[in-house]
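Tutorial, part two.
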Amino acid sequence: MLTPGTILEGRYEILATIAEGGMGTVFRARRVVLGDEVAVKVIRPAGSEAAVLRERFLREARACAQLRHPGIVGILDFSIGPGGEPYLVMELLNGRSLRDELAAAGRLPLPDVQRIAAQVCPAIQLAHDRGVVHRDVKPANIVAHRFETGEVVYKVIDFGLANLREGAAELQRLTTADAFVGTVAYASPEQLQGESIDGRADLYSLGAVVFELLTGRPPFEGPTMLAVITKHLCDDPPRPSRLNPALPPWIDEVVLRALAKRREDRWPGVASFGAALQGAAQPHPTEGPAAGPVPAGVRATYEVGPPIGRGRFGSQVFAGTHRALGVPVAIRLLRRNGRTDWEAVRARFLREARALQVAHPSIIQVRDFGEEADVVYVVTDLIESVSLRQFLAAQGVLPWPLACRLVGQLADAASAVHRRGGFVCGLNPDIIRVTRDEQGERVMISSGGIGHVQDLLSTLSDQTLRGGMLAEPELPYIAPEVFMGRPVDVSADLFTIGVLAFEIVTGARPFEGGSLPELQGAMLAGSVRDPRDARPGLGAEAAAALLRCLSREPASRFESAAAFLRAWPSA
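Running the prediction step on this input gives:
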């Protein structure tokens, strides 16, 4: 047994015990050479299962070591101690777990839950994309860490029971037939029934965690473990808003879909669940006057599933499937419903659909669009993603190789749109999506559909037009000359690319303003802060490219997105 003062293999000085569990003990330790503090998790082999536990612990080390994400605890080292005990060295987290926060607060406000989900969901999604299933997502395994700057992040810990898909058969050999891996209060029905496990089990468990964060109790309670298991398998969970009346009604559908008994009925992925949880600022798609029947032309071609969010101008977005091809799609419907700006909004909506007829890996592909009675619709590929705004909020300042790559993807996609005579004016982090492919994170864009100042003015809110607080998220990304009546062109799009790139690289926007006049004044002042002030160490080449895009004079910007790409450094 390790005690304070013990030097483990000459490298780690044990300082104190942090926690003890069924598999072993976690210690706070100091790295002898570097002097910083770390967490050391030592397995406790026992009896005839010692070899099994060691092998499972080694799998934890290998699984975690492959995962690089701010929302996943970092693995620093793995070794076998002098007494044959395996140990894992991890970054030391200094905050409380969600279990501790629930014990102290009872339940958390929805904005806090949204903030936590924005960090945790991309982390678990990354693990799933790497073939790792956590199998034990619960409040105790989500822990806060406060940096010296005051920023607090939440990290997922303990992938010790993770199942690498490529080693699933071998792991089954290590787990006895009647063993249960996970915690009953948060376990999915398929886990409890001993079925094969994939990422949808983690989705269910995360849904149970979110349920408890919002309501102060798990979705199912009972006097015995068997009673809880029976409810997971047979009963419907209560609606969160019934247990916490302060919650908006739309949250019920979002959370309960994650807790569906059949895994096929849950969200397409953890990222989709995380995106749906961010919808508090918008009315839910099934509420209010925007709801209505799906056009017959859409139903004839597509199997229309549940609503998954809201788009611009109050449009509804549904998950769906192409009946003949079986391909998952997103169906976006915009209804007239007596709105006075219908013709302007309709024109922008359809212009966007036409502009997106471009084949490019970073452009969301439009499969179909049309109009029926007082409804216009666009059908695109359905991608598991989060918005760029959510991604930046969860990640903080991005590592340079990632930021550099995303900016390059954005500019290359814009160049492809330009070659087809379209523009991307109106793009903003709320409508840009971040997904993953075989090369890593990728931005996915759609056109903003703005061609002239009238397209913009006719769809602005009265609040914005009267000089009040900005209500439209696209305004800080639109070139100042567009506000002054100049038609959108490539130089205006270069300004949009510059603002977005500045934010991706530094985590902040180059121009701020509480109202439209203040924002325009900042853009026209001609003084743009050097991005190196916000990101020390940024190369001069990248800084110069950003500043050139943000020039108030259109003629001073790059002549094309392709020219910007040539000036932009490689990752």
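The two ends are 47 Å apart (CA to CA). In part three we will examine how such features are distributed along the chain.
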